[in-house]
Specification:
about 20% strand; alpha+beta; single chain; about 110 residues; three-stranded antiparallel beta sheet
Length: about 110
Amino acid sequence: LKCPHPSPVHPARRFAPRSLSQHHANKDPLLPPPRWPLASAMSVKVYIGNLPGDVREAELEDMFYRYRPGRIDIKRPPRGPAFAFVEFRDIRDAEDAVYDRDGINFDG
């Protein structure tokens, strides 16, 4: 393969490892862009809807314990059912939780 725009920089220097902060600070066009999302620096939030108004955080922890939930944020609007956001550190845990718990009846 031939690069359409040959680099004036030595090929060994072209993809030298740098931290993300250095990449963004220098805006070096010869370095590949950072890989997003960064699993270690990011979390995934899952919406849990139609909860009873008296739901407790401990009940949601019990419901999602096998998927290693992080922070649980319960919202109780003045009208309508309660809902929550459950945070997971790993997207695979969030996907498993959604797959396994989607559509189940919660008896808060």
